[in-house]
Amino acid sequence: xxxxxxxxxxxxxxxxxxxxxxxxxxxxxxxxxxxxxxxxxxxxxxxxxxxxxxxxxxxxxxxxxxxxxxxxxxxxxxxxxxxxxxxxxxxxxxxxxxxxxxxxxxxxxxxxxxxxxxxxxxxxxxxxxxxxxxxxxxxxxxxxxxxxxxxxxxxxxxxxxxxxxxxxxxxxxxxxxxxxxxxxxxxxxxxxxxxxxxxxxxxxxxxxxxxxxxxxxxxxxxxxxxxxxxxxxxxxxxx
Length: 239
What we know:
- By secondary structure, the chain is of the alpha/beta class.
- The protein has one domain (2-238): Ribonuclease Z/Hydroxyacylglutathione hydrolase-like (Metallo-beta-lactamase, Chain A), CATH 3.60.15.
- Helices cover 28% and strands 23% of the residues.
- The chain has helices spanning 42-54, 70-73, 88-97, 104-113, 118-127, 199-206, 227-238, and strands at residues 2-5, 8-11, 24-27, 33-36, 60-64, 83-87, 141-143, 146-149, 153-157, 167-171, 176-180, 216-219, 225-226.
- The protein has a seven-stranded mixed β-sheet. Strands 8-9-10-11-12-13 form a six-stranded mixed β-sheet.
- Helix 4 packs antiparallel against helix 5 (118-127).
- The longest helix is centred in the N-terminal third of the chain and has 13 residues, at 42-54.
- It is globular and about 45 Å long.
């Protein structure tokens, strides 16, 4: 875990993209820290918890989902004492996901039925060292458009092609905007030819709006970027 800026700490993504472990943010607060995403498994969540304790940060009190995809929510059952916050659309999806018979056998059956699920389901199998006591945790607190948490943290629904419930988390006093996967193309099994990054969504988040401007723009599967680095990325993708 590294200190990013202000009261924001960052547990980085796994450089091996086959493992599909995104970064997790910790927004420190003496009244109880805020997690942004849960890790891709209970094992990952336990490692993050150990790093939070080692860094001397206040224990988490709230957990915000940037969206419902498994690599962002499957660690939540290892955070039993936190309030889980997520968009209403994602909550309905996770209610259904929680009723599925997750386990290695079920993953094999689903993969046989739809080989396009291969990258995701093989990564899920690698992430889970045990299915004992595993549960998917739908949000306890739901929102539609935006929610402001204690300490001035702003949770904002932005949608997009990657996930309809995609949400960003702004920490204005630290100059950090946490993006989740909001501007990514759709997941592999839903992707069509020509699907790519949502450049208009990136531009809208870079432009000055009621969220403000930020020093750091952090998506889940890359290294944190400054505003100038995001503009360079935009230029390369637009070219």
